[in-house]
Write a structure and sequence with these properties.
- There is one protein chain.
- The protein is of the alpha+beta class.
- It is about 20% helix and about 35% strand.
- Strand 3 and strand 4 form a beta hairpin.
- Helix 1 packs across helix 2.
């Protein structure tokens, strides 16, 4: 099994979720995250005052999937979240050694 993790702009999440549901992925974990990449400083205005914001708010998606589906899941995310804007996000795949469903005790692929 593989864990596909994506960091995306918040306004892209609905499109990604719809595309993943169409592909057959019916569960994922989402988290609000902040961070920075190549663009370290952004100038924002709040109540008439300018300030430098060092972090950007994003959403982290985590999807556990079968090994054979991991690259397809990445491609679905890439297509549905594509952007030419800087800071559009990142996607990476990591191995999952084990998985268990808390409610039923199912393990491995049965727990997906």
């Amino acid at each position: 099994m593989k864990l596909v993790t994506a960091i995306l702009r918040p306004h892209r999440v609905a499109d990604v979720r719809a595309a993943l549901t169409t592909f057959g992925i019916h569960g994922m974990t989402t988290s609000q995250v902040t961070g920075y990449g190549m663009e370290v400083w952004r100038t924002s205005t709040h109540r008439g005052q300018k300030f430098h914001d060092e972090t950007v708010s994003n959403v982290r998606l985590e999807i556990v999937t079968e090994d054979a589906d991991a690259e397809d899941v990445v491609n679905v995310i890439l297509r549905s979240a594509s952007s030419t804007a800087s800071g559009a996000g990142k996607i990476w795949i990591t191995p999952v050694d084990g998985l268990a469903r808390v409610r039923t005790g199912e393990r491995g692929s049965d727990a997906l």
